[in-house]
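As a next step, we paired sequence with structure tokens, yielding the entry below.
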Amino acid sequence: MEDTDRDYEIAELRDRYIRDVDLIIVEGYKQNPYPKIEVFRPSLRRERLCGESDNLIAVVSDEPLAAGVPCFDINDIAGLVDWLEKTGFVIPG
């Protein structure tokens, strides 16, 4: 944890703090251009935050839904990881 004078962009955080990793997972940053996986729970009665035009690549949910992108059960972490490895989503450096 570190106090900073501003919020850093993901690329700045990566360059400043992260080394030798294949995947960075962050919460927030909804307006950035990077690929997104949304965790969505219909039972909370809220709207989804992202669509395909927001670079949404997958949805994780506690209920099946038609999302226009691959949808994984909230408990199927292995399935999501396998899919990420097979598709090779990479954030440009």
